Amino acid sequence: MPTPSLMKRVLVRPVAVFTVAALIVTLTGCTTSGVVTNADCDVAAQPGNLSNSVSVSAEAGTVPQATFPLPLRSTEIERTVLTKGTGDTVETGDLVLFDYSMYEGTTGEKLGTSFQEGGTPATQLLTESAGMALYSGLSCQTIGSRLVLTAPVAQILGDEAAAQFLPTLGKNATIVVVLDIVDRVLGRAAGSPRDLPNGFPVVTNTPDGRPGVTVPSVKAPDTLLSATRIQSTLPEDEQEVVASDSALILQVLAISWDNRTVISSTWEDGTPGNFASGTELPYIDGLTGKKAGDQVVVVTPGPNSMIYVVDILGAYPAQG
Predict the structure, then answer these.
(1) Residue 153 is inside which H or E element, if any?
(2) Which CATH architecture has domain 24-186?
(3) Gene3D superfamilies, from UniProt (predicted)?
């Protein structure tokens, strides 16, 4: 995958997962209706009468006002590109940053948005596990594009999430989403692995970037350990340096040294962690001075010693 243009423009807003109860990251059980495979990308939803019927009053990057014939009822995913952006193309494995407004198709009611002042872009790791509506909706699009997606609520949110967070809609309701692609970053560290110093656990990676850890059969260290296992090969002007108060996008695997068990993993969660400036992270001292694109292994000391394998996807200065 080509190296993306990783945040050359420093975002003035921190990022966060989809704010309607983080619904989109829970997509499940979606079908491939309205999706085609082509030589340029894995899957891409196509325009249709319903997505083409949605009118949006503003240009990409500004707050949209969407109108459409009521009631709007969909049985498959449709995507219409309102504005084609001039930035890099989104690819499978990227972490995509986007703004959205989401509407209920029968009444036109706005269900949620990230466009309000002080709002935060949503993020989604672009893989098939993201669910077909977002996967096919974002695939092959470029940064700066504005899209309209129409689909049944189950294909946008998944059956379980729709029932939990929007129970009054019913499983056959249609959702309309106006979506601006803000940016993309790599979904994993970017560079070549190197050996860790003595005293560190053994860390490996699968081809898709997931780390694995072998904990040594020795006592946990008495002091904080930190070392770069993958050194970023992004262009120098794209290697944002982590400060103690940076807002961060991270892939994190956390393992107990003593119990040798996985405590948490953003890889298993399906989306990287987004941490606002000032978030207390037990491993932040081990990341300070590292750069976007690095993979860093941090071991915290003490009787509850933890191993953190951290891929730094993005680092943004605190907004004062």
Answers:
(1) helix 153-157
(2) Roll (3.10)
(3) 3.10.50.40
Examine domains 24-186 and 191-316 and report if their fold is the same: yes
- At 130 the three-state DSSP class reads helix
Domain 191-316 coded CATH 3.10.50.40: yes
3-state SS assignment for residue 25: helix
Residue 301 has pLDDT above 90, yes or no: yes
275: enclosing H helix or E strand: strand 273-275
Contact criterion met (CB below 8 Å) for 186 and 6: yes
From its phi and psi, is residue 34 left (phi > 0), alpha (psi between -120 and 50) or beta? left
Whether the model pTM is above 0.85? no
Rounded to an integer, what distance in angstroms lies between the CA atom of residue 288 and that of residue 311?
13
Nearest to 184 by CA among 98, 104, 261, 117: 98
Q: What is the pLDDT of residues 135-148, one digit of tens each?
A: 888 888 999 999 99
Q: Name the amino acid, one letter, at 48.
A: G
Render the burial of 232-251: b for 16+ CB within 10 Å, e for the rest. Answer: bebeeebbbebbeebbbbbb
Residue type, 291: K
- Helix locations, 23-142, DSSP H: 49-52, 132-138
Residues 260-277 pLDDT 10s = 999 999 999 888 888 888
